[in-house]
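Service request form, structural biology core

Requester: graduate student, group of Dr. S.
Request type: structure prediction, single chain
Budget code: on file
Notes: please return the result as structure tokens.

Sequence provided:
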Amino acid sequence: MRGLKSTIALLVILIGLVAYIFFVERKKPAADAPAVKSKAFAVDADQIEEIQIKPAAGEASRVQKINGTWQLVEPEKTQADQGQVTNAASSLAALDINRVVDDNPSDLAQYGLNPPKADIAFKVKGKSGLQHLLLGEKTPTSGDMYAKTPDQKRVFMIAAYLENTFERTPFDLRDKAVLKFDQSKADGIEVVHDGMTTTLAKSGSDWTITKPSKMRADFAGAEAILTGLSSAQMQKIVSNEAKDLRKYGLDKPQETVTVLSGSTRASFAIGSKEGESNYARDLSRPIIFTIPATTATDLEKDYAALRSKDMFTGRSFNTARVELKRG
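Core staff response, request fulfilled:
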């Protein structure tokens, strides 16, 4: 009889435990389920067609997407750095609100939002008006940054690393390529170094020096000039007008390199050295800028450096026979 009572008691406890799990515990969220973050904006990156950046201190910028390409339109008109602007547009579209810290703040100044450190505005295709993101100070741990939108009172936190994405200067947003040309279409190079002109022509995959005398050119040396020019970036702009060229050693450049593509010419001049930089300019534009001195050194190729050093044109992989004669 005692055994039956014990069995019944255990059965009642089991039924109660199952009922608790079914009606109570199953309704609770999983302890390790990650919190779903809300988005600051409901927008697709490819629909953003204009971005404005207005810092509290410094020069404002405005970029627009024109015919599928980002252009810097203020404070000056030039091609924009496609990577920088595309990254900013993608970051706006994907912007997560990490946490709302105050739904109705009485003092925005404590968050660095009165005035904000920066006002990031953007326009969406097919919609009138601009949407704004106001950026404040970083949190004490520097892991997040306070932010808000003008249409709502709440202050929320976003990832602090986005400061470097959104707070960009006009120079950051502009295309910093020193010379524009299509390397795949280049069929000639003209190098003026220390008063001596060396001209190279490309036929198929081979480079030949045509001036001052005709001979095989060093393939790697010729291609290094093109690769160096196509990848070189401005460090900073020192003058928007090429007036006093002597000041920058550009009245008589150390070296001038011209890339030829059919009848098209793109010329680049290297001037005097200043610290760890050299002054330089694209001869088709008025601006004077600096490039790293190491870049200038890599581009300085004279006749001796550009001629082929090989005694024979053959290569080990295509040589069928070697014949040696003595006496």
